[in-house]
Amino acid sequence: MGNNNINLTLNIWRQESAEAKGDFEKFKVSVSPDASILEMLDELNNKLEKEGKIPIAFESDCREGICGTCGLVVNGHPHGALPKIATCQLHMRNFKDGETLYIEPFRATAFKIIKDLIVDRSGFDEIQQAGGYISFNTGSAPDANAVPIPKEIASLALDAAECIGCGACVAACKNSSAMLFVAAKVSQFALLPQGQPERYERVQAMIAKMDELGFGSCSNTYACEAECPKGISVKNIARMNRDYIVSKVTKETV
Amino acid sequence: MIKLDPKIPAGHISEKWTNHKFNMKLVNPANKRKFDVIVVGTGLAGAGAAATLGELGYKVKAFTYHDSSRRAHSIGAQGGINAAKNYQNDGDSIYRLFYDTIKGGDFRSREANTYRLAEVSNNIIDQCVAQGVPFAREYGGTLANRSFGGAQVSRTFYARGETGQQLLLGAYSSLNRQIKLGNVQMFHRREMLDVVLVDGVAKGITVRNLLTGEIESYGAQAVILATGGYSNVYFLSTSAMLCNATAVWRAHKRGALFANPCFTQIHPTCLPVHGEGQSKLVLMSESLRNDGRIWVPKKAGDNRPPNEIPEDERDYYLERRYPSFGNLAPRDVSSRSAKYVCDEGRGVNGGKAVYLDFADAIKRLGEQTVKEKYGNLFDMYQNIMDENPYKVPMKIYPAPHYTMGGLWVDYNLMSNVPGLFVAGEANYSDHGANRLGASALMQGLADGYFIIPYTIGNYFGSEKPAKPDVNSHEFKESKDEVLENVNKLLSINGKQTVDEIHKKLGHLLIDKVGMSRDEPGLKQVIKDITELRDEFWQDVKVVGKGEDLNQNLERAGRVADFLELGELMAVDALNRDESCGAHFRVGHETKDGEAIRNDEEFAYVAAWEFEKVGKWNLHKENLEFEFVELATRSYK
Amino acid sequence: MGWLWESLNSSIGKKIVMAVTGIFLIIFLIVHLIGNITLFFGPDAFNGYVSTLDVVKPLIRVIEVVLLAVFIFHIFNGLRLWLENKKTQGGKFFGKYRVNASSENSSFSSRTMIISGSIVFIFLVLHLGTFFWRFNVHDPQGYADTHQYFFIVSELFGIWWYSALYVIAVLLLGFHLNHGFQSAFQTFGWNNKKYFPLIQKFGTVYAIIMALGFASMPVYFFFFYGGNL
Fold first, then answer.
1. Are A139 and B450 within 8 A, CB to CB?
2. DSSP assignment letter at B202
3. Which of residues 16-55 of A touch C (CB under 8 A)?
4. Could A194 and B450 be called an inter-chain contact, meaning their C-beta atoms sit closer than 8 Å?
């Protein structure tokens, strides 16, 4: 423990199960400014375990901001107030000594709370299963350089494909809409030549699934883009809207 | 008595796989749906295998402990994936990729497997592009490449610093398609805690439902473990928090041999440790070594800020010692060199860190180009270290990263237990004693997409395994044992937390079974680990219930297995009285500190058979090199 | 036509209904404002303008019916979206964040569409109940019968609370339009790196012109024409 530790008051959402009533529990901690917020929770949990108390349930895995497992709402911001980082990359040096933090789970009807700060994001998988792929079987691919793809297009597709599926867009949205998440995948494939054959079926199938799962619609507040740890642009939503309209208006088969 | 038969097909190395594919037994398309396959782990190898087997028509059950298969730690790989496409016209070929890989692995891998890996590498790139993986492109629209450690050709395909993510999401999309088509049934939040054998043949698994705590049985005619590596045994590593060895370890305890456990790779370009509360180490892609120059001050105790240390007082030690490979020397060589200079007291401020400097690259290419190539890595560095790497050199230090060791498999990727296949990092792989950069993604996908789907068909076609009954006594006994283990962990109620003990284990291992190993140290550490294991079973405190989501219990089970595996790593390191690749035994080095292999005595795969906790029997698979000459690795 | 019904009821479809009707109303407001500017040129100009409209009454009636339909769609759909979206937020117990930081990630006007829209709607009812009713249906003072529409305006804007409400409502309308304008383009998928910043700026300028334009009338009549200054 360095002496440059900062002291914080944490109000952390505790909830035993999906049905149980939850509430905030208050903790006082002293933490190194170099630690990440999840390391702070690790330390707190270690202390709780030592005292025989039930540690705070939260999810994380890679701790490099790429796997999308972690996701806490810190003082009202999914993944904290800093732009373009996941919760695991939020370091305590960004907080002032004596500050009070509210740490909450992602809240949305489509993200049922499982325990404490863990929510069920399986809806995202279901949306991807509805059409987030290119249909072809292993072994049937042509040579990788057979179809040239302009650098700019590949780069735009990658901008969209960077989505880590964390759910912050849903958590930030006042309508709990998954538009940014869905748009990222739709957009990636809509841009690439490989995605063309199923382009219009895909957008319809994914939107239909999103609606069915109880995610809201888009109010174009762009809170999703502001809170997205990868900075996925709402232009992808526009691209998806365009494809959706085109698919509905001009395509006979879908 | 276990007989190790690698089942290497006959013929010239370039024809083995083709011949083998032709000679394999096939399963009629209509019969494929009668075969159930369990795939544990849904990273590159697991998702790739599950999707491809689904496409072929097998009935697949895929398991992950994550909430989604997209979270697997394959996603963390940054730099790229190798393939022998020779798009750069710089003299690459399948043979060269094979040779680089086997040489990089310091001649401790099986020739035939490594060749096959190089052979299918090109199919992987085709496959991924077809999946819509947005690889980096040239202005003309063709694929771009970059160079990586241990190679003198440019053969690494990449998608910014997120190649692993993009490849995993590609595999995930193929998997999703099969889930939708009903060929793959996906089980999330299940941790595999046992392999079930019926008459010595793998027939299923026992898992714990991480949401409810329920112990569940699943049967199939074959089980594929694609559960990744065990670097987390060191506590601090670049692996994700949940990465663990439990699946392979429980399989090992059921009879699968564990091969070369001491071959663990310490990656040279990671961020230094900042404090005891740290949960993991962050990797900075090795691709940074393309343009970054690694140096330390010439004099120990030179604590000036890096930009104030003049050029002639800096030691660019990799460029000095390995003029032809320079900063792109293989990982083991680079890591060890960093350790040496830091041991000499020449690390940053005398501590455990060296500089990775981009000043020259920025001068040569301009800040914008450097930003385009490495922007996200630089941002990541700035976020974590609170320093601007465009202005101040990065600080890096080696960290446990990848484990070449794993369950022993034959040419068909089947372990010595019939019906139990092992893919990706989980198997004793094609990387020998050291893996080259950008080869892990290649191997995971090769195993998953292009190898296991063939070889499993051969197993079904030739052995015609019967469907198991999950209500049989074998499944029930496994369930009981798993439950007993869970209850045991919950009942100890000691004083130390799981993490405390895990950290102790990590310190022991990194110290004694890390970048350099010696006999007294290994002997000591075996004793220490045994004691720590006793301490764990007497004094660990696991809170909560078994019938609930209980992350404390999950971690406890994993650490219990690490405490056994850690000992085996030391046992293996002690047995291997030579230096090779990542395994560096003090006393087996040249004057310059280069590793000296002992091919006479140790050109074998050490495959360990579990007898009881703390007791293993060694089996050797001798490595024969017909097509490459055993040479001393030189990167000078 | 099942596909159309289905499409319009999807999350994107509902947004498209909002956008299409919104664009229609945006155009209507421009026409409305231009016509009303004649108020500043005195009774003859304004009365003449309204009387001209009378000449093409059948056409105007058709437009009014369409306009009514558009308004109803816009309002009904907006309310429906609001109600549906409320249900997505996790319910009253789990749904509310203890700390709400939405002011830091989204614009005020984008978050308050339902509020600004509702108040504009209340105003609209009042507006129709006064101006529209007296111009077209029944004017107790009888000005409308003699085409003295200007006096109706000056009389109504002479009432302080009426003018105040009018000003507040059109300012909120400004916020509503500021978000609605660019939002419609986003919904149609016309978000392009080159043009979208321009569309956003244009929308803001449009919203300001509409808000100030419509607000200038009660202000003018109450303070200057009515001589209350």
1. yes
2. E
3. 21-22, 24
4. no
What are the helix (H) ranges across B322-358? Answer: 331-343
User: Cβ contact (<8 Å) for A107 and C89?
Assistant: yes
pLDDT digit string (tens) for A208-253? 999 999 999 999 999 999 999 999 999 999 999 999 999 999 988 7
Range of the domain at A130: 121-250
Å between A219 CA and nearest CA of chain B? 28
Question: In chain B, what residues touch A184 (CB-CB under 8 Å)?
Answer: none
Contact list in A for residue C110 (CB cut-off 8 A) is 219-222
- Give pLDDT < 70 ranges for chain B: 1
Question: Among B40, B330, B77, which residue's Cα sits nearest to residue B191?
Answer: B40
pLDDT surpassing 70 at residue C93 = no
User: pLDDT at position B629, please?
Assistant: 92
pLDDT tens-digit profile of B125-177?
Answer: 999 999 999 999 999 999 999 888 778 899 999 998 899 999 999 999 999 99
**Domains, chain B, ranges and CATH?**
267-400 (3.90.700.10), 473-622 (1.20.58.100)
Question: Is any Cβ of chain A less than 8 angstroms from the Cβ of C112?
Answer: no
Is it the case that residue A1 has pLDDT exceeding 80?
Answer: no
* Mean predicted lDDT score pLDDT of chain B: 95
pLDDT exceeds cutoff 50 at A202: yes
CA–CA distance, B628 with B445 (Å, rounded to integer) = 25
How far C22 CA lies from chain A's nearest CA (Å)?
A: 13
Q: Report how far residue B428's alpha carbon sits from residue B558's, in angstroms, rounded to the nearest whole number.
A: 20
Q: Provide the CB-side half-sphere exposure for B603 (13 A, CA).
A: 13
Last residue of a domain, one of A114, A131, A155: A114
What is the model's pLDDT at position C92?
66
User: From the CA of A57, how many Å to the nearest CA of chain B?
Assistant: 7
CB contact under 8 A, B165 and A164: yes
A233 shares its domain with A127: yes
> Which of B241, B244, B502 is the best substitution to test chain A (most A C-beta atoms within 10 A)?
B241
Kindly list the strands in the beta sheet with A23-31, ordered across the sheet, starting from the edge strand earlier in the chain: A23-31, A6-14, A100-104, A73-74, A77-78
Q: Please give the pLDDT value at position B332.
A: 85
Q: Are B407 and B417 in contact (CB under 8 A)?
A: no
By annotation, the residues of B acting in catalysis are: 331
CATH number at residue A150: 1.10.1060.10
Q: From CA B517, how far away is CA B515, in angstroms rounded?
A: 7
Q: Taking 70 as the threshold, does the pLDDT of residue A2 lie above it?
A: no
Domains of chain C from N-terminus onward: 2-88+109-225 (1.20.1300)
Residues A107, A148 within the same domain: no
**Residue A1 forms part of a structural domain:** no
